[in-house]
Automatic annotation (TrEMBL):
Basic and acidic residues compositional bias, start-end: 1-13
Origin superkingdom: Eukaryota
Protein name per Swiss-Prot or TrEMBL: Chloride intracellular channel protein 4-like
UniProt topology in membrane: Single-pass membrane protein
Biased composition (Polar residues): 62-75
Disordered as annotated region, ranges: 1-30, 55-77
Cellular location(s): Cytoplasm; Membrane
Gene Ontology MF term list: chloride channel activity; oxidoreductase activity
Domain CLIC N-terminal: 81-165
The reaction(s) this protein catalyses: chloride(in) = chloride(out)
The organism of origin for this protein: Cyprinus carpio
Homology family: Belongs to the chloride channel CLIC family.
Family annotation (PANTHER family): CHLORIDE INTRACELLULAR CHANNEL PROTEIN 6, CHLORIDE INTRACELLULAR CHANNEL PROTEIN 6-RELATED
Gene Ontology terms: cellular component: chloride channel complex; cytoplasm
C-alpha cells in the first residue's frame, strides 16, 4: 500500500555515500577514499582541524583504509590499534549491505579514533582472516590485538573503553597552546559518550526491521496486506516517538502546548548508539520496500522523514553507508515475488 500522499515533499535525495566510492586502488595496491577533497571532518574533532584519510597498502583480496582523527596523532597516550572488518559489496571491494557493519563503522567514526577498515569478500575470504576469526563473518574487529566478534558486545566494549575523559597532552602546537591544553586538558579532546540519555530512545523502532523482513520475504498475496499493515503500525510508533518532545524540549514554566519535537535524532540533536543501530535498518527499509514492493514511507510520518533527512546530512552516516545499488542487489533474491 502506497501512501495516499506523495512523500517526495519530505524526502531529500541523499548525497552519494562513501561506500560507493571505496575501491581497489592502482596497480601498486593503494586504496583511496575521497570525501570533502580527501579530508574527513570527524564529528567530535576540534573546529578547523581535519582528519586526513590516509592511503594504506592493500593485501589482496582485502580492501583496507585507515581513518584518522586529528586529535589522535603520533605521541598520543591513547595510540590504539583498531581494525574493523566489514562485509564487501557485490564487486568484492566496496562496502556491502550490512546494517551491523555500518553500526560499528558509525560508532568508531563518532568516537573519533584512528582505525582501519577492511572490506571482506565472503566468496573468497582470505586464509589469514579465517585464522583471525574462524567461522565468523563480518562484522568483527581487533582492538589492540584482541579479537571481538559479537556486535552488541563490541558496542558495549567501545563505549566502555573509549569513554570520557581521555585527554591528549602532546601535540605539534605552538608553545602557548600546549601550555593552555596542559593546564586545561579537558577542554581539548575526549572520546564522546554515545549512550542515549533517554531509555525510550533505545527501544524506539525496535521491531520495525523484523516487520519489514516478514513483509519483504512474503510471497503470498493473501498475506501481503496484513504484513504491510504491521509494518506501517511499527513505523507509526516510531514516528510518534520522534514527534513527541523530549523533556529538555519542554518549558516547565510554560502553560502552552509544547508542540511537536524538532530534534534531529532519537535522543536529541546528536547521534547516539541508538541511532547507529536504527538508521542503517531504516535506510534499508526505505530503499528495498520502494524497489520491490512499491511501498513508500507515508508522507504524513513527518517525524520519520525528518529523522532520515537529518541522517543524510551527516557524514558519519553517509560515509559509512553502502551504495543504493548494493542494498537493492542484496535483496534481489530475498524479496520474494508475490504470487
Amino acid at each position: 500500500m502506497k501512501a495516499s500522499e506523495s512523500s517526495d515533499a519530505h524526502f531529500q535525495e541523499p548525497p552519494k555515500p562513501l561506500g560507493s566510492r571505496v575501491r581497489r586502488g592502482s596497480s601498486e595496491g593503494e586504496v583511496n577514499i575521497k570525501a570533502k577533497g580527501q579530508e574527513v571532518i570527524m564529528a567530535n574533532g576540534c573546529p578547523g582541524l581535519a582528519a586526513v584519510v590516509q592511503q594504506e597498502e592493500e593485501k589482496p583480496p582485502e580492501n583496507t583504509t585507515k581513518m584518522e582523527n586529528p586529535a589522535q596523532q603520533e605521541g598520543s597516550p591513547h595510540d590504539l590499534q583498531i581494525s574493523l572488518y566489514v562485509k564487501a559489496g557485490s564487486d568484492g571491494e566496496s562496502i556491502g549491505n550490512c546494517p551491523f557493519s555500518q553500526r560499528l563503522f558509525m560508532i568508531l567514526w563518532l568516537k573519533g579514533v584512528i582505525f582501519n577498515v577492511t572490506t571482506v569478500d565472503l566468496k573468497r575470504k582470505p586464509a589469514d582472516l579465517q585464522d583471525l576469526a574462524p567461522g565468523t563473518n563480518p562484522p568483527f574487529m581487533t582492538f589492540n590485538g584482541e579479537v571481538l566478534v559479537d556486535v552488541n558486545k563490541i558496542e558495549e566494549f567501545l563505549e566502555e573503553r573509549l569513554a570520557p575523559p581521555r585527554y591528549l597532552l602532546s601535540l605539534h602546537l605552538p608553545l602557548p597552546f600546549k601550555r593552555f591544553f596542559q593546564i586545561n586538558p579537558g577542554t581539548f579532546f575526549k572520546f564522546p559518550k554515545l549512550a542515549a540519555k533517554h531509555p525510550e530512545s533505545n527501544t524506539a523502532g525496535i521491531d520495525v526491521f523484523a516487520k519489514f523482513s516478514a513483509y519483504i520475504k512474503n510471497p503470498r498475496k493473501e498475506a501481503k496486506e496484513g504484513l504491510e499493515k504491521a509494518l506501517l503500525k511499527s513505523l507509526k510508533r516510531l514516528d510518534e516517538y520522534l514527534q513527541m518532545p523530549l523533556a529538555e524540549e519542554i518549558d516547565a514554566n510554560s502553560v502552552d502546548d509544547p508542540g511537536v519535537s524538532t530534534r534531529s535524532f532519537l535522543d536529541g540533536p546528536d547521534l547516539t548508539l541508538a541511532d547507529c543501530n536504527l538508521l542503517p535498518k531504516l535506510h534499508i527499509i526505505k530503499i528495498v520496500a520502494r524497489k520491490y514492493r512499491g511501498f513508500e514511507i507515508p508522507a504524513e510520518m513527518t517525524g520519520v522523514w525528518r529523522y532520515l533527512n537529518n541522517a543524510y546530512k551527516r557524514e558519519e552516516f553517509m560515509n559509512t553507508c553502502p551504495a543504493e545499488r548494493e542494498i537493492e542487489f542484496a535483496y534481489l533474491d530475498v524479496a520474494k515475488k508475490i504470487k
